[in-house]
Specification:
With 169 residues, the protein is of the alpha/beta class. It contains 6 helices and 5 strands; from the N terminus they run αβαβαααβββα. A hairpin with a 5-residue loop joins strand 4 and strand 5 (138-143).
């Protein structure tokens, strides 16, 4: 599916349906671990009728404490590299998979703005990680443009597209 620079609701729905179809075909359960998207990935997926068959849980962890308590992110990692990092995204995705017993998961952590950016991590910096049970986690850095809504929409789209790729590789 070709996406516009800032995906529409219809485009997000299309991506979610592709993920749902493949997850269901493989008889897997899916979990999301979200920070900057605030549950938007889970909402997009669970807007689909019948999602309870393949959607296990969605966790929103904005604070360091929540990332530690709910996903097992190492506090030393958070202190050393910050929440918006490859290491934290990978720990979030592994923790979500382990804690909720799913077959596939996605994790996102980033800076949606309008504040919170730095020279090293400007607004629009997002790390997304994906993992299948029994497979290796992988993460990707994105630099999205636009306001808070645009950054979050693009993050949801990239997370869903990556899930679809993870499920079909």
């Amino acid at each position: 599916m070709e996406l516009s620079s800032v995906p529409t609701d219809a485009e997000l729905r299309g991506l979610a349906q592709a993920v749902a179809d493949e997850t269901q075909r493989q008889r897997l359960m899916l979990v999301t671990a979200e920070s900057c998207t605030g549950g938007w990935i889970a909402k997009t997926l669970t807007d689909l009728p019948g999602s309870s068959v393949w959607f296990a849980a969605g966790v929103v962890t904005y604070s360091y404490e929540a990332k530690q308590a709910l996903l097992g992110v190492d506090p030393r990692t958070l202190e050393r590299v910050g929440a918006v990092s490859e290491e934290v995204a990978l720990q979030m995705v592994a923790g979500a998979l382990a804690r909720f017993g799913a077959g596939v998961t996605v994790a996102v952590t980033g800076i949606a703005g309008p504040s919170g950016g730095t020279a090293d991590k400007p607004v629009g910096t997002v790390w997304i990680a994906w993992k299948r049970r029994g497979g290796y986690a992988h993460a990707q850095l994105f630099q999205f443009a636009g306001d808070r809504e645009a950054v979050r929409r693009q993050t949801v789209a990239a997370a869903l597209a990556g899930l679809r790729k993870t499920l079909t590789e």
